[in-house]
Amino acid sequence: MLRIALPNKGRLAEEARELFNDAGLEVRVRGDRALTASLGGEFEAIFVRAQDIPEFVADGAADAGVTGWDLVCESGRALSALLDLGFGRCRVVLAAREDSRVRTADDLDAFGPTGAGAVRVATVFPGVTRQFFEERGQAVTLVPISGAVEIAPHLGIADVIVDLTSTGSTLKMNGLREVATVLESSARLIAAPGALAAAGETPTDKQRALDELVMALESVLRARGKRYVMANVPREALERVKQVLPGLNGPTVIDLLNGGAVGTSAYVAVHAVVPAASIYRTIAQLKSLGGEGILVTRIERLMP
Ligand SMILES: Nc1ncnc2c1ncn2[C@@H]1O[C@H](COP(=O)(O)OP(=O)(O)OP(=O)(O)O)[C@@H](O)[C@H]1O
Ligand SMILES: O=P(O)(O)OC[C@H]1O[C@H](OP(=O)(O)OP(=O)(O)O)[C@H](O)[C@@H]1O
Ligand SMILES: [Mg+2]
């Protein structure tokens, strides 16, 4: 049995569950507040706080987990990210009051009447923050707090903060200016390196299950940004159509057998996988090349 730790609530919970569902690992919860669930086959989920997942995976309480990279870094544990899951994108940043003189991290050196070392940094990421300033050779005083960090500079308990941002609206709303990026984060699938080989169960079974999980999630993530396009296009426009539809290995071209001999029909069907972001342009280009019966569908999984 491969046990996977998933966030029970908060920013990452819903998208993690959706991704696993899309990959065929349907979360079958026994009740509203159940802490474990079967994912079918040899997979089971435990639902815990995103903050605790790095510890659980590092200690072997779970074989793999889904959590934010920021939390993995903060834990300081040796964990590998097997996959970037693409959601929960945010940054840990250094921010100062808009009305302060601090515009870059270097400005902290000249901060305050007592000089370097006097800068107080409020954060829920003391580990990541300490490492950031250590690497820069700057002495700071950490003010660890557990939430609502943005208010600290206005309360006079800190000069700057290190906190999460994505759209930037919380910083702005609180009169703060982003000064430097400390860390870029997104949700990752994590595992402890070498842990599966040491587990009681036949190591190859767990490792194989984990490999299958990675492949299943990867194929769903790859498919999300793509669309499958089908169209009937004039045979004489085929070369230009190929420019529009590069596809994975170029489009699949299928003869339309409307009574005539193979290779003689005026139209051919073309199928291709294209980036979802430019689908509107692909359709317009196919249209202008005489394309008809254009059909676009989502793809569930994609394995190259
Ligand atoms: N604004 C955001 N945009 C994108 N991802 C975010 C954002 N805020 C947090 N995250 C990601 O989600 C993770 C969990 O944050 P979440 O808000 O769910 O928990 P929390 O508020 O830190 O803790 P809790 O609500 O359990 O007390 C973060 O560590 C980060 O990886
Ligand atoms: O740049 P933005 O898009 O404004 O996002 C940043 C905010 O999002 C997170 O808080 P969240 O909304 O998760 O609330 P929380 O403080 O209860 O965790 C984070 O702690 C920031 O406060
Ligand atoms: Mg939050």
From TrEMBL:
Localisation per UniProt entry: Cytoplasm
Keyword Transferase applies: yes
PROSITE patterns, alphabetized: ATP_P_PHORIBOSYLTR
UniProt protein name: ATP phosphoribosyltransferase
Higher taxonomy: Bacteria, Pseudomonadati, Gemmatimonadota, Gemmatimonadia, Gemmatimonadales
Swiss-Prot/TrEMBL cofactor(s): Mg(2+)
Residue span, Histidine biosynthesis HisG C-terminal domain: 223-301
Gene expressing this chain: hisG
Cited function: Catalyzes the condensation of ATP and 5-phosphoribose 1-diphosphate to form N'-(5'-phosphoribosyl)-ATP (PR-ATP). Has a crucial role in the pathway because the rate of histidine biosynthesis seems to be controlled primarily by regulation of HisG enzymatic activity.
Activity regulation note: Feedback inhibited by histidine.
